[in-house]
Amino acid sequence: MDLIEEAVTAAIDSSRITALEIDAIIVSNMLGEVTSSQAHLGSLVSALLPHRPPAIRVESACGSGAYALHTACAFLESGRAKTVLVVGAEKMTDVSVDAIAAGLMVAADSEEDRPSGLTFPGIFGLIAARYMHEHGLTREELSLVSAVHHRNAKGNLFAQFRNVITPEAVSKSPLVADPLRLLDCSPISDGGAACILSTNHESEFRLAASSIASDAVSITKRPSITSFPASRDACGRALKEADITLDDLSCLETHDCFSIAALINLEDLGFANPGEGISLYKDLYEGKKTRFAINASGGLKGCGHPVAATGIKQLNDLAKQLTEREERWGMAHNFGGACASCGIHILERMHD
Amino acid sequence: MDLIEEAVTAAIDSSRITALEIDAIIVSNMLGEVTSSQAHLGSLVSALLPHRPPAIRVESACGSGAYALHTACAFLESGRAKTVLVVGAEKMTDVSVDAIAAGLMVAADSEEDRPSGLTFPGIFGLIAARYMHEHGLTREELSLVSAVHHRNAKGNLFAQFRNVITPEAVSKSPLVADPLRLLDCSPISDGGAACILSTNHESEFRLAASSIASDAVSITKRPSITSFPASRDACGRALKEADITLDDLSCLETHDCFSIAALINLEDLGFANPGEGISLYKDLYEGKKTRFAINASGGLKGCGHPVAATGIKQLNDLAKQLTEREERWGMAHNFGGACASCGIHILERMHD
Q1: Cβ neighbours of residue B156 under 8 Å, at least 6 residues apart?
Q2: How much is the pLDDT for B352?
């Protein structure tokens, strides 16, 4: 609740609205029951405001943030609300490492995946091994991803890790789930993020598209594990809704829960051909100018991954980046599990 | 997932729609993480349909069902969906009694209520004791509530308990949380319920109103524990939305998680003055004709209370009752915790 309150206060204070204008709240949370024995967060968050607006908790694993934003859009478009507070938070460090690893597995299929002993590092380890087999990606190349994300996080005061790391340090970090190493994995994090969506106020930013899509939860039920169709589906519909093409985008925040995911995401979103996502990270690592920014915030690896807050935090990061760079279009790409649920948001900065 | 699949199949089979018309799914679930180590139910349910429509999981404790219906309304009104499947399920009997009692406490305030050792029978025991003190309700009178609910459930093939019980049996059943006894308490249940809301089809039924409201989660933060303001708030807004008065209602399904709740609810909804809710149950017990039916399904006590399914099941029960009685208006009243979240739906049968 402290994490939520801090994020909510910051969102209200940095906006043009007053708390009393908020007429609906969507709360994003994944692990409250597991780590804090706490559900019913809608009502708990509502009580933070004097007029207790209607409040709903939405969950879609690590994609909860995007799903909460999407739900908020529906409430605004329905006319049932004019000003919606969207807040996500996760308190992950109060329980043991074993408990959090087991807890995160609620995002997997408890009948198909859990009995095999898989954890999410294990699932993405299998994905990374298969990707390397299919596309010839080397361990040294993969290490560029986290190196770039840490460097990007360096100037981000909200990032959990602001230390620069070398690709060699990634390659030599302890093995977690072969071939993934410690520094390939986003960390266990405490964090909160909030934003306010309103149809009542002029703003520098417009949420131009919101889309969600899903896939089989268990990777055992997928024809391929090196591509996530839900990303393709949600991205296609989001671009159509915003009436733009990929070429219009200047900033991308994508869901790098593990280094390998960043590469797959760039390919599924259409920024790179299959197997070629690493070329963008090579350019970034070498300091070449790329056509668009990728996880300029530091991504999940650099910023931390308080799971249900991530999708909302991505949107806030895009707003900062578009302002700093004086660009128009940004995309936030957030998913749950191994992209069994995917949410895409396109943010437009209005005044060029 | 079996409970969900059975409910979904029944909902589709009994409707005029085909599965492929469903363009959004709202899943209601409270305890998946606690009892089945399973979150991410939106994507799991989506995969039951060949075209995997977008699917969101909503939670508001035992009021999750009503909150899912409310969310579905927003998606329909936004135009983002034309046909929404709403499904709720709960599998509560796979874990120990201790585990489920502790698990249900995720609906309470884990910082304020849990440290005192309270459980929900304990919370409603305090509420019942206070209500008896304030209004002079006797133990014998309170026992009429469950007796009526069991008698109502007798003919309901979906009810968990179809045995008639006497008020004396209630009064003599084992003490659970003074003054509440075993037969004052809705049971631990497995169950699922689903319905389909569509703006694309003519139907015999129209969802005329949907409203939600919240209150402090901890009863320690309430000025009174014998009245639930969230019920008053949600009910007032629902009646306004449907443009009817209480007098228009012929059927009420209300949230009798404990016998005392049924009395408080009748008073908060405006059907009885404070302290006089029991008079309606006296009439019902004596077989007198009441102006409107109360929990004709058997309520939570008779039907069982698979927590997140209950709010959806209430709506299905209202549809049956309005058809059987050839009446027009019914109200479903569902809440979470000690009414820290409340959802009200008004159903209209269109062809008199």
Answers
A1: B162, B297, B298, B302, B303
A2: 54
Let me know if residue A304 belongs to a domain.
no
Count of domains for chain A:
1
Instruction: Give the Cα separation of B173 and A76 in Å (integer).
Output: 50
CATH (domain of B11): 3.40.47.10
| Shortest Cα distance, chain A CAs vs residue B231, angstroms | 13
Instruction: Choose the closest CB to A78 out of B30, B61, B78.
Output: B78
A-chain CB neighbours of B67 within 8 Å are 42, 56
Q: Which residues of B38-73 are buried (b: 16+ CB within 10 A; e: fewer)?
A: bbbbbbbbbbbbeebbbbbbbbbbbbbbbbbbbbbb
Q: How distant is the Cα of A26 from the closest Cα of chain B, in angstroms? A: 10
Mean pLDDT in residue range A267-288: 98
CB contact (8 A) between residue A33 and residue B337:
no
| Residues B346 and B330: beta-carbon distance below 8 Å | yes
Does the pLDDT at position B339 exceed 70?
yes
Cβ contact A40–B61 (<8 Å): yes
Q: Kindly report the pTM of this predicted structure.
A: 0.98
Residue B183 to chain A, least CA–CA distance (Å): 26
Of B194, B179, B193, the C-alpha closest to B303 is B193
pLDDT tens-digit series, residues B99-154: 999 999 999 999 999 999 999 999 999 999 999 999 999 999 999 999 999 999 99
> Which range of residues forms the domain containing residue A23?
2-94+190-194
Cβ-in-10-Å burial (0-12, 13-18, 19+) of A35 comes to buried
In a domain, B101, yes or no: no
**Is the preceding peptide bond at A229 cis, omega within 30 degrees of 0?**
no
Contact flag A106-B37 (C-beta cutoff 8 Å): yes
Task: Show Cβ contacts of residue A289 under 8 Å, excluding neighbours closer than 6 positions.
Answer: none
In the predicted model, is pLDDT for residue B312 greater than 80? Answer: yes
Q: Which active-site residues of A does the annotation give?
A: 62, 305
